[in-house]
Amino acid sequence: MTGGALEINGLAKNFGEDRVLHGVDLSVPAGSVTAVVGASGCGKTTLLRLVAGFETPDAGTISIAGRTVADADDCVPAHRRDVGYVAQDGALFPHLTVGQNIAYGLSGSTRSTRARVTELLATVSLDADMAHRRPHQLSGGQQQRVALARALAREPALMLLDEPFSALDTGLRSSTRKAVAQLLAEAGVTTLLVTHDQEEALSIADQVAVMRDGRFTKVGTPQQVYFTPGDEFTARFLGDCVLLPGTITSRVADCSLGRVPVRDGAADGRATLVLRPEQLVATTVSDGDHGAGVGTVLSSEFRGHDVLLVVDVGGGEPITVRQHGLDPPTVDAKVRVDVVGTAATLDERP
């Protein structure tokens, strides 16, 4: 089934005196995955519930596959929106078996339904014999995977996922989300995922929307929001970052690391540069070396495949360098920090 696009325009929601969403706009291309990421309480789950039809907006419109399902005059009930919804707790029917939960709402012969249930169990990494168990006989992670399978069973035009992998351990979370992403892509289902896990959002989504206090601070591809975050909140929320004051002249910035190229569109003058720690490389130098980018390793945190170094290069806060864990510079070593790629600049507007 070909999924339809989701269009959200000017969406606002209050709970009493508390404004939760402030005129949110979002366009989700057909067949793609958009992840809304933000801290607890920022409004992302409320957004999902409005799209699902569990809440009524105070202003704005929601359209699914070209059909308006919510506006100032009307709100289509949840069961008529052709959406699949997976909540954090799974919300399985306790009186039904796993197989009956997954098959709920499916039409067709008993044989075809059983085959579909077996296929979906495999997709979410569960054995076929679990179809005969009851929800209370499963772990929390297993229950969540059954909930995913149930939502996928009818191949909805729009899939809504609210922290669907949060109950899974790290290894299973990664494999399950890859399998689910592949299935959604093959089915052409437009998907809106809500998560607080930045790595999950960046890895699974075609588009990432960062939310803060009921507003989006940045919407774009994973690469765009990560490497050109625009503001300090977004930069820090999506991972470790290095912020450096500098002066830009003709797309080159002078800063404590020397002359660093900046991305297109950066205006000349004073600016705050933003780099990711993996864009920096620390190389041990002799005690007699001096100049921009030369400093001392203050600490080293070995993480197996990589190492985090904190380096004092003078002229401001120490910087964080993330590089491979093979033979890294030691604590107190003198190093030169070089930049790989280009720096972005922060939006200085309030």
Automatic annotation (TrEMBL):
The UniProt entry, under Gene3D superfamilies, shows: 2.40.50.450, P-loop containing nucleotide triphosphate hydrolases
- Keywords, ordered alphabetically: ATP-binding, Cell membrane, Ion transport, Iron, Iron transport, Membrane, Nucleotide-binding, Transport
Name a single GO cellular component: ATP-binding cassette (ABC) transporter complex
Q: Where is the ABC transporter domain?
A: 6-238
Top-level lineage group: Bacteria
Output the PROSITE patterns linked to this UniProt entry.
Answer: ABC_TRANSPORTER_1, ABC_TRANSPORTER_2
Q: What is its EC number?
A: 7.6.2.9
CDD domains assigned: ABC_Carb_Solutes_like
Specify one Pfam family: ABC_tran
Q: Which InterPro entries match?
A: AAA+_ATPase, ABC_SmlMolc_Importer, ABC_transporter-like_ATP-bd, ABC_transporter-like_CS, ABC_transpr_FbpC, Mo/tungstate-bd_C_term_dom, P-loop_NTPase, Transp-assoc_OB_typ2
Q: Which GO terms describe its molecular function?
A: ABC-type ferric iron transporter activity; ABC-type quaternary ammonium compound transporting activity; ATP binding; ATP hydrolysis activity
Q: What is this protein called?
A: ABC-type quaternary amine transporter
Q: Specify the species.
A: Mycolicibacterium hodleri
